[in-house]
Design goal:
With 240 residues, the chain is α/β, with parallel strands linked by helices. Helices cover 42% and strands 18% of the residues. The protein is built from eight helices and seven strands. The strands form two sheets. The chain has a five-stranded mixed β-sheet with strand order 3-2-1-4-5. A two-stranded antiparallel sheet has the order 6-7. Strand 1 and strand 2 form a beta hairpin. The chain starts with a strand and ends with a strand.
């Protein structure tokens, strides 16, 4: 059995991160690229049977304006004392800004090609909330690129995140990008440039999504927001 995660780009030209764990928590796939929905399905088809796929993107958006109730509930929830924020998602905003709701299109492809059903073995997730749920003592870890945070600071946060992921029992096998990150961050080399680091960040988010899939199907340590009609978000979290 395999458990996958996708950090899905909201535009077709953007890069997505993709990760797959086996049932022994080995990383059997870790990559990023400007993947089409069909290419994502091709990659996942090599890992059968798929127990679950978690996607960092809205997969069902029925509200024309405003935000989804599942997102509002998630933002009101405390994860070990921490609250997280996220974009309000509406169909009009997604269509105007991104040309459509890509997550819905991906979900349709995954159902047609791989028989993955939304709410059964396909869900939305949110890496920031996963970090708050699984690593509250280090939250927010500081690995995400944002205004006022340097790339060396992001690299240090990513290295801390990798160590926390290892503490879950994940057997890390690195992509070339991850090896590059760890060698630079541990041995004092020059920092990655922004594009190099973005490839690392996408893969880290994809890996967090794969961990979420594993927790959803193999543990009781998760919480769900939404019933599927307008979102279904699963967040891995340790008990309080």
């Amino acid at each position: 059995m395999y458990y996958a995660g996708i950090d899905l780009a909201w535009t077709r030209r953007g890069h997505s991160g993709l990760a797959v764990l086996d049932q022994s928590m080995n990383i059997v796939h870790l990559s990023e690229g400007a993947y089409t929905d069909g290419r994502i399905a091709d990659i996942l088809s090599d890992f059968q049977p798929l127990g679950a796929v978690s996607v960092d993107s809205p997969l069902a958006v029925d509200n024309e304006t405003g935000g989804r109730p599942c997102d509002s509930l998630l933002m009101r929830t405390r994860f070990h004392g921490h609250r997280v924020s996220m974009f309000a998602t509406s169909r009009s905003y997604m269509e105007k800004t991104y040309g459509g709701v890509r997550g819905e299109e991906l979900a349709a492809v995954l159902e047609a090609r791989l028989n993955l059903k939304f709410t059964r073995d396909l869900c939305e997730t949110f890496p920031t909330a996963i970090c708050a749920g699984l690593f509250p003592g280090d939250y927010p870890l500081g690995y995400k690129v944002k205004a006022g945070r340097s790339i060396p600071e992001c690299m240090a946060g990513a290295d801390l995140l990798l160590r926390r992921i290892e503490s879950l029992g994940i057997r890390l096998s690195f992509s070339a990008d991850m090896e590059f990150l760890r060698s630079r961050s541990q041995f004092g080399g020059a920092p990655l440039n922004r594009n190099e680091y973005k490839a690392v960040e996408d893969q880290l988010d994809g890996l967090l999504c794969a961990i979420n899939s594993y927790y959803w199907k193999r543990t009781d340590a998760w919480q769900v927001f939404g019933g599927g009609d307008n979102g279904f978000t699963v967040i891995a979290r340790e008990p309080e």
